[in-house]
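Show me any protein, fold above all:
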Amino acid sequence: MQPTQTDIETRLAAVEPDVEVLLCKPIAAEKMRLVIDHPDGVSLTLCERVTGHLGELLRDIGLEVSSPGPERPLTKPDHFRRYVGRRARVRTREPREGHKSFTGELVDASDVAVTLAADGGVVSIPYGDINRGNLVAE
């Protein structure tokens, strides 16, 4: 059984408290992708340390650890709030107004929804309806 993002965050909080887990998702039956961030940036050395800290937890699973890059994933309300004013793409689980993908400026991020000024107008999307979100490279 693959560990959850919460399992991984709990393990890392004890040994790397400044590391933020942005995304944790299975990419194959026996492999996980982990996207991390750190106030000082993400180096190869940090990725190696994180991999080492998670070795016991991920004993039977391959792990890919990387930095967020310019199209940083947005997975929590705090992530969206941090980047209000930037361009982002939000993909919904189900179509809204005939679309599942919205790209535009983040204009608000409350505790319940994110609001984008997209090409088709301003749209507010509850976090529970979001499948994926990320910054758009400018």
